[in-house]
Amino acid sequence: MTITALMPVYPRCGVRPVRGEGVYLYGEDGEQYLDFAAGIAVNALGHGHPKLVEAIAKQAATLMHVSNLYGSPQGEHFAQRLVDSTFADTVFFTNSGAEAVECAIKTARRYHFANGNPQRHTLITFNNAFHGRTLGAISATNQPKMRDGFEPLLPGFAYAPFDDLEAALALIDENTAGFLVEPIQGEGGLRPASMEFLQGLRRACDEHGLLLVLDEVQCGYGRTGKFFAHELYGVTPDIMASAKGIGGGFPLGACLATEEAAKGMVAGTHGSTYGGNPLAMAAGEAVLDVMQEPGFLEHVEAMGQRLRATLEQMIPNFDHLFEEVRGHGLMQGLKMKSDSRRFVAHCRDNHGLLLVAAGENVIRILPPLTIDESHITEFATKLSDAARVYVPAADD
Ligand SMILES: Cc1ncc(COP(=O)(O)O)c(C=O)c1O
Question: Which parts of the sequence bind N(2)-acetyl-L-ornithine (predicted)?
């Protein structure tokens, strides 16, 4: 037998973390890494945040799990806080981002079904989108690397170039349910949508009775310096998928919707054994407690500006490597002129700096939202040390 016990679907690198503390990860042999990847935008409060650890430990000792057959005082309380802080009137809790996207797709289809328009089942999605790895979520992207070998996929998606309003509007027909879009594409290359694009989609939804479904799994929950990224654009969605930062590392996601958009999601239409269990709710409340402390989002915004300025200053010194900086808050991308995966590996293996590669040869910089200026200084030193000695391969 040659297959590994862990199904070999990830090209895992040599870093084998066993402990985390704040912005640092430690490997099996005690080696230290500056973690500016944060579990790909998950560890919003860094590693081992005392309030999150305490909340999980306390809830685990009190009541870890009960079925959704029973009433959920924990779920009601956390959902109400999310409702009070967002556009939404109602929340379905999931265990991951892909499940939150699945719930969002189902909610959109059920809305039109409930309105007597079951033929309006198609969501317009965008090139290079990433919505997760379930069959529904891979059907919502047209990236062959996610889809190949998994056909037949779910029908009911049409694809337009990202940030091309005209192309998106041209796809609207009698089967259209709405748009599913990341306000800032993460995996696809850290590409923020333009104002005109997102506002144009909202307008089209209002004009044609469509639903704007946002995937804020990566860009939401404080990452951009706003609670959710759509606040940067002055638009509100009808339905939104959230995950990653919402649990700070505890597996938790949420599908949020307005009362109108959720009108088809009646008893029996959806479910999840674990979704919204008391342990997950305790984790979610602890993260939200910290994020709603006065000044938290302003701190993210300030650190984001500092990080961006640091990156922009670095470009002229290494203009053979770096091209431009993209993003908002602590979701920044550095576009490279050569293979960003190789450079990310170099930073990791030779300079103890963890980053994430994305499409279009972009490096994603996604530190915990709790970083301070000293971490940005340390990051800048490591990144410039790494860039100084780096030689791209001839075929990059
Ligand atoms: C925008 C977006 N949507 C959905 C997902 C899927 O989330 P999960 O891996 O928790 O299923 C991701 C994960 O990276 C993501 O970035």
Answer: 133, 272
Rounded Cα–Cα distance for residues 383 and 364 (Å)? 13
Q: Cα–Cα distance between 388 and 382 in angstroms, integer?
A: 10
Rounded Cα–Cα distance for residues 90 and 76 (Å): 10
Strand positions, DSSP E, 145-218: 157-160, 176-181, 184-185, 191-192, 211-215
395 is catalytic: no
In this prediction the pTM is 0.98
Residue located nearest, by CA, to atom 8 of ligand 1: 97
Report which ligand 1 atom has the smallest distance to the Cα of 134: 11
User: 186 with 131: CB under 8 angstroms?
Assistant: no
Q: What are 375-396's pLDDT values in tens digits?
A: 999 999 999 999 999 999 888 8
In Å, what is the CA distance from 295 to each residue of 46, 222, 223, 225, 268? 17, 12, 14, 10, 41
What pLDDT score was predicted for residue 395?
A: 81
Verify whether residue 335 is a known catalytic residue: no
The CA-based angle 108-109-111, given to 5 degrees, is: 65
Q: Give residues (CB < 6 A) around ligand 1.
A: 40, 96-98, 101, 130-132, 182, 186-187, 215, 217-218, 243
**DSSP label at residue 86:** S
Q: Is 164 a catalytic residue?
A: no
The one catalytic residue among 106, 226, 244, 382: 244
d(CA 357, CA 344): 6
Closest CA to 165 of 223, 212, 120: 212
Residue 216 known to bind ligand: yes
The conformational region for residue 268 under phi > 0 = left, psi -120 to 50 = alpha, else beta, is left
pLDDT value of residue 284: 98
At 218-248, the pLDDT tens digits run: 999 999 999 999 999 999 999 999 999 999 9
Instruction: Walk me through the domains of the chain, giving residue ranges and CATH numbers.
Output: 17-48+295-389 (3.90.1150.10), 63-291 (3.40.640.10)
Spatial contact of 38 and 24, defined as CB atoms under 8 Å apart: no
Burial class (CB in 10 A: 0-12, 13-18, 19+), 203: middle
